[in-house]
Amino acid sequence: MEAIDWSTPVSCETGLRREVGRFVAACDGRPWRVAWCAGTGFLGADELALEVERTALAATLDTLASGSHPERGVFFFSSSAGGVYAGVGAPPYDESSPLRTLTAYGDAKLRAERMVAEWCLDVGTSALIGRITTLYGPGQNLAKPQGIISQVCRSYLSGRPSSIYVPLDTIRDYLYVADAAGLIADGMSRLEHERTIDGSTVVTKILASQRPITIGAVLGEMRRVFKGSPRYVVASSVLSNVQTRDLSVRSRVWPELDRRTLTPLPVGVARTAADLLGQLQQGDLAAASR
What we know:
This protein is of the alpha/beta class. The protein contains 9 helices and 10 strands. The protein has helices at residues 9-27, 47-65, 81-85, 104-123, 148-158, 177-198, 215-226, 265-282, 284-289; strands spanning 32-36, 73-80, 126-132, 134-136, 162-164, 171-172, 174-176, 202-207, 213-214, 232-234.
């Protein structure tokens, strides 16, 4: 597979149509799965980044639909629990909670959810829309201003303090990346089974650890893992006003998928730090910090 150039909507659309077209041809009418976890958007992203994502998603869906037997497919779309519930103000949130965004990022996620749902009904494909909470773990893109666990781990290893832009009593739900991947894979398998019974299906599910914890408590766990104090400063930002204080969630959809052993936070922090240390030793972490 050739790399996708995400710098402009045109380059991104061209690359995705090429690669998705190759994928569709290789499937040759057989059942397929596609998980859309791509994108460069984040809380506070500019309109260009969000437009790149919208164009990329639309191009991918259009190309998948052009293949033979699109109804044999299962599609996953990664949405954002923080983005779509940010303005509701009545935690804990579940799949029946009202939706209210506070940012262009949240608006973009909701529009993309609707795009995927409408596309599935049009072409007969089934989709799982996963509203993911605060994701963390190895491989996070540190060029984007997100991921407090990865950012604080990097600061501890590099000796430069990171900035935290929300109060330390802010509550989040941290989901380790491998646990998220397991939930997505099992959800797509469940969706395949339901599709054979009911035809095209669109399911929205919150993907979370369902173990809310304050940022202050997370820093305490990191202190025990590092055997030393994490380096951070509490700062102000215009984005602080669009961050909900409590993002506790409970998933009511397919609860049997949530009955699993999740990665304990200290273990996830240690693995994240080990991954970043490897990057630091190879010089990649310093490059990502600039």
